[in-house]
Amino acid sequence: MIPAAFEYHRPSTLQDAVVLLGRLGEDAKVLAGGQSLIPLMKLRLTSPRHVVDLNRIPGLGSIAERDGALVIGALVRESELEASDVVRRRFPILADACRVIADPLVRNLATVGGNLAHGDPANDHPAVMLALEAEVVAVGPQGSRRLPVAGFFTGPLSTALRPDEILTEIRVPLPPPRSGGAYLKMERKVGDFATAAVGVQLTLDAGGTCAHAGIGLTNVGPTPIKARRAEALLQGRRPDDAVIREAARVAADESDPSEDLRGSVAYKRDLVRVLTARAIRRALERATAAH
Amino acid sequence: MRVGVTINGERREADVEPRLLLVHLIRDVFRLTGTHIGCDTTHCGACTVLLDSRPVKSCTAFAVQADGRTVMTVEGLERDGQLHPVQEGFVQEHGLQCGYCTPGMLMTSYAFLKQHPRPSEDEIRHAISGNLCRCTGYVNIVKAIQHAAGRLAAPAG
After folding, report:
1. Of A3, A108, A191, the CB nearest to B55
2. The whole model's pTM is what?
3. Could you say which of A82, A108, A139, B11 has the lowest number of CB atoms within 10 Å?
């Protein structure tokens, strides 16, 4: 399959890239890892007249702890996240997720930034970042702005990024003590999108009460879903079996799946219930083991 | 657009359209046909090559992205008429039936064993999970990679 012809641009600075996007407007697509964009172009589901390749812009490829946050540059590959020491130590939810995104070869090119900026509710990082309450940094002609991931996904394959903005980094707050997270994905085979997946990030207080809960749902609605009612139900309560079961049931209620080859609406809802309960239990184990 | 790629240690140049896929640069322009096109939809991994030492699916990258970078294909494994231990492993352990997935399996295995010289079976299975063998000969493929790991770990001579 051959994509439609396009003009290729390879800016060497972020400034040049922003100017280019400002000039080219809606006719341009940004290329990072290309693992969503190139398949879509080959199928001619999208045929941009211009492709702006970010890969030669220096400074976008690092993973660092800075100002109380894990800062993931726009060109960090999934495989680099998987190998990152800080991710393994402090973000088990991210370590879970980056092992189940696509397959190991795709992860050598695919970027975390692209996984978010593509705005696909079937992608895995959106739910994870919703659970972690991350922010993205977008740079445009007016400078840079921070956008909370909650609110970033505006519709199917749509985000709050403007056509002349580039997502340059993701900022994930460093979890306080007694925190743990987990991401559980049901997929038919390696490389498939989730039938459903759930990310949970919890913080306990010294007495074992849930001080904070973040829950994100993958591929069970037109956008990635932040399960706010389930989060609220956990907060301020001791997460015993009854509370976990109730939160899982509420998260299933908050999902809005459609029937497709992966399953019926009822099946996917029930999967959200089961995965949410399991993810909460695993997050709790990890929050407890950490201290 | 003019691109220059170091492929299997040799510097090659070509004039390409930006939409040309890396796999077509390798097969149709450079005439290195060992790299296969299987599904053409980023699933099967038959087109796996190393781009700056990392295995990637060459049906899902543009040739222009490889400009100034290094590419290694299955043709780059053999040295001075000697098969690489990974290739020998596939011969010894019957790691192929139809052979269509083999170039991709070999490149993924080669890169994986450089990073993980003493892999467990689970690690091997995880590493090749982006390469599909529709003969379903995975048991022998895993044995082939274990054979190669043993050969690579043995002292030379």
Report:
1. A108
2. 0.96
3. B11
